[in-house]
């Protein structure tokens, strides 16, 4: 299996959008996934987010991705926020997630980030095991807030 991990480009956005849709269905939140491919394209162009992709070179298919942006922590300084992290089911257990994770951490370090944060559903045991294997702390004492604008 020849998988290339690379910085995503605008050409990858349809595949990224599709993976996010798959993730939304997995998370039982498909109706909440309303961002269009056109919004992805505009927001990517404007630098609102970046993405690292895993591409199967034999099929030229994006089989995994880590979509992220940079934010600021008043306690730590520069921070990388991981919005979505997914590897398609047929490509799991081959180390692709680990390779994406390692590149993501390196991107954060290159930008001077002191912290990386993300969310994980409490029932997503596979993801929680992965994060704990990375020596990540899974916080349970904070509630998440959101407001649709």
TrEMBL record:
Alphabetized GO MF terms: N-acetyltransferase activity
**Span of domain N-acetyltransferase:** 3-149
Record-linked Pfam families: Acetyltransf_1
- Would the keyword Phosphoprotein turn up in this protein's UniProt record? no
> Record keywords: Transferase included?
yes
Tell me which domain of life the UniProt entry assigns to the organism this sequence originates from.
Bacteria
Q: Which UniProt keywords apply?
A: Acyltransferase, Transferase
Question: What family does the database annotate?
Answer: Belongs to the acetyltransferase family.
Record-given protein name? GNAT family N-acetyltransferase
């Amino acid at each position: 299996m020849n998988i290339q991990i690379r910085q995503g480009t605008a050409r990858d956005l349809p595949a990224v959008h599709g993976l996010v849709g798959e993730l939304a269905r997995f998370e039982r939140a498909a109706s909440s996934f309303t961002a269009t491919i056109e919004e992805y394209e505009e927001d990517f162009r404007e630098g609102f987010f970046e993405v690292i992709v895993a591409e199967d070179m034999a099929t030229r298919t994006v089989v995994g991705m880590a979509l992220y942006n940079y934010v600021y922590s008043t306690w730590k300084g520069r921070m990388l926020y991981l919005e979505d992290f997914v590897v398609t089911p047929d490509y799991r257990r081959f180390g692709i997630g680990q390779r994406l994770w390692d590149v993501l951490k390196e991107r954060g370090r290159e930008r001077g980030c002191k912290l990386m944060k993300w969310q994980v559903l409490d029932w997503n045991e596979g993801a929680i095991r992965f994060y704990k294997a990375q020596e990540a702390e899974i916080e349970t004492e904070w509630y998440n807030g959101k407001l649709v604008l």
